[in-house]
Amino acid sequence: MAEAAAGIEEPVRAPVTAASAGGILTLTLSSPPANALSIAVMRALKGALDRARDDAGVRVIVLRSSEKVFSAGHDLKELTAHRGDADRGRGFFETTMQLCAELMQAVVRHPKPVIAEVDGVATAAGCQLVASCDLAVASETARFATPGVNIGLFCSTPMVALSRNVARKHAMEMLLTGEMIDAETAHGMGLVNRVVPRDALNQTVAKLAQTIASKSSLTVKIGKEAFYAQAEMGLSQAYDYAARVMVENMLARDAEEGIGAFIEKRSPEWKDA
Length: 273
Hints:
Number of domains: 2
CATH topology of the largest domain: 2-enoyl-CoA Hydratase, Chain A, domain 1
CATH class of the largest domain: Alpha Beta
Largest sheet: 6 strands, mixed
Order of helices and strands: HEEHEEHHEEHEEHHEHEHHHH
Shape: globular
């Protein structure tokens, strides 16, 4: 504080920080106190995801937060500030929602698995971000909500991710009531994979990430892409598509190596090809 008073500026905190080790890239939302998904935060997160796409050193991505709030969703103060624009904010609102849609799809379409490590509250677009991740592990103190209805703004975009993760009636209950649910309820709905004690959260996510990172990255990439693609198809089309994927996968060197290693009772040596 003394330095600030003397006119020395404190360093600007990056809205998203990145750390990589052992093939695992950890992206931390670092925009206190609410880790709101402002334009700056969304651009920083999407930029980090884009850079990781072609980084062979990244095999798994973990998304977490540095605060007690995982993410409270869109920055309502930032949005409100543009109501004074000539178009009453329409242009800025459109930019925000488009960027959010691009960010969520960047998570789903990313060739690397993305795991949400959720400690604290994840609401509105923050809940949407959790639902968009491939896997999610929550602490016992985590809570979730799509509370837009409480402020006259239905959580229409969070609805897209939420309704693709939980049963329709569960999704509608969250969307229509805006009520907070605890981690165990979220687990029962299928919004998160596991609920663990807070002091075991980081270790649990690290172990899960390490397990996935030990697989062939080519195989994981093929599987993730196919999972989301077939989910949008009819049954017959999905089987036809999945069969073609399996054939191409069988021709990959890692499939040849993995099957050979299994038959020979040895550990496979992945080439990611």
